Fold:
Amino acid sequence: MSKPTILCMFSGGVDSAGVLHELLTNEKYSTFDLIVHHIHLWNRENRALVELEAVKNILNYYKNEGKSSFVFTQNTFDTRGFAPLKSNRFPMDMDVCAFTAAQLHAAQPAIKHVAMGRTRSDVEGGGKGFALRMRRAQAIFKSSLTIESAEPAEYIFPVVDFTKREIWDFLPEKVRESSWWCRRPVYKNGSDPQTCGACISCKDMAPIIGNQS
Structure:
């Protein structure tokens, strides 16, 4: 990276697609280099493969549109081995993203901002629990950098002024078609993933796009 850089944590979901779209098209981010990072989250929800497909299709769309001025990186975080504990809890996405972002920042001090997909819908409807999770994630990020000499990057939220519906509306059609939101995909015949229609993400999206199964 040759100049101040933004690290975009990208899942392939609607919110992070909105963030990526803003970073690639909004003039106020044009002075930054961009790293787009995807985490293969292998856990009991079994959505890693379908999220990866969404990531590939969305990034290919922007490359075909001539917006390929970013570096793509990726890593794997696997908690499937926790299964014998029979626990309903496993590391939250925010926490995993925060820890990973800190490691990338330590490796690349040019990173000045970490872009995340917080929306107006999250702020207005997430309640106390969401605010606590956000503070914990940022604490994880900063504590992971305590031995680094560089000033920690700042979290930014490029779509925080937009609701989820507004993000859906401004995304290009092919990006909307490629995005994935369901947390517990249903695989028919071992493949062909379908949205479950019952998880919190499906319920959030249902009024926007209609129920899918």
Strands lie at 5-9, 33-42, 71-78, 111-115, 154-156, 186-188, 191-194. The first strand starts at residue 5 and ends at 9. The chain has two domains: 5-179, 181-213.
